[in-house]
Amino acid sequence: MMDEVTLPDNQRVILFNKRPDGMPTEDCFLLSEAPVPEIADGEVLVKTHFLSIDPYMRNAMRGGGNYGPLNPGDVMIGRGAGVVVASRHADFKPGDAVQSEFGWREYVALKGDGLRKLPPDLEPLSLSLGVVGQSAATAWVGLRDVAKVQRGETIVVSAAAGAVGSAVGQIGRILGCRVVGIAGGLEKCRHAVEDLGFDTCLDYKAGDLSGQLGKAVPEGIDVYFDNVGGETLDAVLEHVNEEARVAICGQISQYNLARPRPLENIGVLLAKGVMMQGFRIGSRLDRRDQALEELLGWWRDGRLEYRETVSEGFETAPAALLNMLSGGNRGKQVVRVTG
Q: In the chain, what are the domains?
């Protein structure tokens, strides 16, 4: 039975307007209006409180690929967190906090089956998108299932101050590893070490990243968690150990290039028996739920720190995406829509 609730007739949505050539610009998006949807049996209507801003969005804007069809005129894709305002599903009631794929819209109708209900102590709700959400679950799966990290190993992670990279470093430390971050700028490196507990962090903007790595990891690298690709990946491969594992999570340095930079040190894979594997959390949803359960426990125990870059207002989502793609965020980039 759907609870009575007063709702507006229309809502704001942000459409994907055109494919970018290089770095996206704000005219790649269009602020529009659409009716607030009706819900059918088995569905809930959710008011969006936070939108998640993530690197995969840029890749999806190319068209095709593994992120589902995204064509000009479509509502822009993205995860969100919000609160149920009307329900025709027995397991959900108005006031329940939930997280799912929302798209860039103020209200969304979602099927109740498979919808993630958030625990009442999880505040702010944006944590369900970052350190107790998809970003940290990506880090967990990449370390445990792809890299099969072992206690005492040395982990290097790029984009160390970002949402996934900051989780990789903290999870690595919890699992008993030495963790070295790579980030852009002294302030981001300071944050990784002093706030997040990394053993050290290297500023790639200072130049000679390979030389910096040689000094920071003289014992070599057992696991590299790659979020950026390009020159950084090549520099890291110069320092990997025999049978090292490389988990490819993102290639953000390549997304705006017409022709991505080819890997130059690929011979290391053969010479040292290195395993390199790309992965997406969307293809490992069975493990994601287990990851989220353990992450929630660590968060409740005070073992996970987080930082967020919060953009205020629904209409700021395009600018928030451009900020994240240019490296302007520290921690998870989110948009606070309401609440």
A: 10-130+306-336 (3.90.180.10), 134-281 (3.40.50.720)
Mean pLDDT by 10 residues, the chain (339 residues): 70 96 94 97 97 93 73 96 96 96 97 91 95 95 97 97 96 98 96 97 97 97 96 97 96 85 93 95 83 96 94 97 92 90
Q: How far apart are CA 331 and CA 171, in angstroms?
A: 15
Q: CB–CB of 151/175 below 8 Å?
A: yes
Tokens of 54: 């993530």
* 3-class state of residue 315 by DSSP: helix
- Decide: 46 and 85 in contact? Cβ < 8 Å: yes
> What pLDDT shows up at residue 285?
78
SS3 content of the chain, % helix, strand, coil (to 5): 30, 30, 40
> Are the beta carbons of 12 and 315 closer than 8 angstroms?
yes
Please enumerate in sequence order all residues whose Cβ is within 8 A of that of 224, keeping only pairs 6 or more positions apart, or say none.
Answer: 155, 156, 157, 158, 233, 236, 237, 240, 244, 245, 246, 247
The torsion of the CA quartet 218, 222, 226, 230, rounded to 10 degrees, works out to 50
